[in-house]
Amino acid sequence: MKCIVGLGNPGKKYEMTRHNVGFLAIDRLADKHGIKLDEAKFKALIGTGRINGERVVLVKPLTYMNLSGESVRPILDYYKIEIDDLLVIYDDLDMVPGNLRFRPKGSAGEHNGIKSLIQHLGTQDFKRLKLGIGRPPHPIKVVDWVLMNYRKEDMPELNDTLDQAVSAATDFVDTEWIALMNRYN
Q1: From the candidates 19, 33, 111, 120, which is the catalytic residue?
Q2: pTM (2 decimals)?
């Protein structure tokens, strides 16, 4: 079984913010594969189903970004999912909007959701799909930028990014890791 987690913040207020691009990707992935995110447990909204014939659990932690690990660790334990079968989708300030990149592991950098995951998983060796949101233009602060809603003019690029993320996450389920990185990076 694979576990695909999208990071974000719960609630209408954060729904269309840059920090919620992981949630948006999970919603689109669930829609594409007919998986209902309708089970609330482990401080998360969860949906189980099949992608490319493989069993998957899709996860949107409801802990708020900074506590994401509190949700993900118990889910992996409950479903007996190995760290190697986990993919985390999240926003990346240091990537150009519209770009995405797979990474097999790494530090958290400035990302508090990833810091929480590293703390609760006890390792930084988990697969990631980073979606570029870019750095804020001066004088906007980073915290304001990530919690700012996408503007109408950003929507075509956001939709393209989410479509690419869905394709990449779908391929994650049954594609060898090196081939996956070569295809999308």
Answers
A1: 19
A2: 0.97
